[in-house]
C-alpha cells in the first residue's frame, strides 16, 4: 500500500484540512479521569485514577501524550523509502495453513489469521481479535486469509482494540454481524457509536483501562493501556479509546498488545496483572523508527517490553499481511529469528492458520 493511501486512512492526506487542526490556538486542555461505571476494576496499579480524558473530550496516553505533527508526516511522506527497491524485489510471504473447518477440540488454541487478527479458544470460550479480512481501498492483503469468514461459528466474543482501519474494518464487521449475531463485542470507551450501526444485533461492552468485562464464563478479560491514538476520519482524533487485552483463564494468562509504542505501561501491566504465559506482541510497521516509534514497537522494543512484563512465550504479530511502512514485510521476523537468544523467553514461530500453542 502506498503512503498516500495509508496516510489517507489516518486522515492526514489533505494538508489544507489538517493544517487547520495544527493551527488551532485553544488553551491547553486539563485532565479528568473516567471509566465505565457498569464494569469492575479487579486489579489496579497503585494510585490509579482512571482513564485520562482531556477537557477537549479526547483521550490521552498515560505517559506519552500523542502529538500529531504535520511537519513530521510530510517529512516521512516526501523523504522516500531507502528500502524501496529492495521491497520491490522481495517476494517472500508468511507461511500458511488452510483451516477447512474450525472445530474446538477442548484444548487451548491461538490461531493467527494475519496482522493483529487471532482466533483464540481458551477455557472453552472462543474469541476473535481485530478481524480485518476483506480488502478495501485502504488495505491490500499480502498474506492469504486461512479461513472462510462465512464458515466461522461459535464465537463468543469479538475484541476490537481501536478504530484504525487495519484493526477495525467496516466490511468485515458487517459480515460478522450477520454470521455471528450472538457474539459480544468487547472494546474501549466510546467505540459503540462506530460499531453498533455495523453490528446492530451484537451486544457491545466498552471498558476503560484496567476494567474487566462482564462475562458469564469463568474467564477474565481486562482492557489495558497502550501507547497509541485513534482516528477514523478528519475530525475525530482520539475521541475513541484504544488499548490491548489481558486474558486470564485458570492458571494461564494471555496478553494481546494490539498497537503500541514502547513505554512504562508494559511494566505497569505486568506488575498489576502478572507475567503473561503467552504474549502476542506487535513487531511490524516500525520504519522509519524516528516516525513510527511513538505508535508501533520495533522487534527490538517489543522484546524489551516482553522482558519487562516477564512474559514466557513471545508470539510476533502486526507484520507480513499489510504493507504499512518502510521495512520489508518479513523483516521483523528475520530479526527475531536471528536474535532468539535476546528474546528472553520462548519465541513461537508464527504460521498463519496453525495452532501456536
Number of helices: 11
Q: What's the mean pLDDT score?
A: 91
- The tally of domains stands at 1
Low-confidence stretches: 1-25
Largest sheet: 6 strands, mixed
Assigned CATH class:
Alpha Beta
Q: What coarse outline follows from CA principal-axis ratios?
A: globular
The gyration radius over C-alpha positions equals 19 Å
Q: Tell me the structural class.
A: alpha/beta
Q: Describe the strand arrangement of the main beta sheet, using strand numbers.
A: 3-4-5-6-7-8
Helix-residue proportion: 10-25%
The CATH superfamily is: Ribonuclease Z/Hydroxyacylglutathione hydrolase-like
Q: Approximately what portion of the residues adopt beta-strand conformation?
A: 15-25%
CATH topology: Metallo-beta-lactamase, Chain A
Distance between the termini: 32 Å
Number of strands: 14
What order do the helices and strands follow?
HHEEHHEEEEHEHEEEEHEHHEHHE
Write the CATH architecture name. 4-Layer Sandwich
Give an overview in words.
By secondary structure, this protein is of the alpha/beta class. The chain has a single domain (3-39, 48-99, 112-347), classed as Ribonuclease Z/Hydroxyacylglutathione hydrolase-like (Metallo-beta-lactamase, Chain A), CATH 3.60.15. It has 11 helices and 14 strands. Strands 3-4-5-6-7-8 form a 6-stranded mixed beta sheet, with no helix packed on it. A 6-stranded mixed beta sheet has the order 9-10-11-12-13-14. Helix 7 packs parallel to helix 9 (299-309). The longest helix is centred in the last third of the chain and has 11 residues, at 299-309. The two termini are 32 Å apart. 45% of the residues are buried.
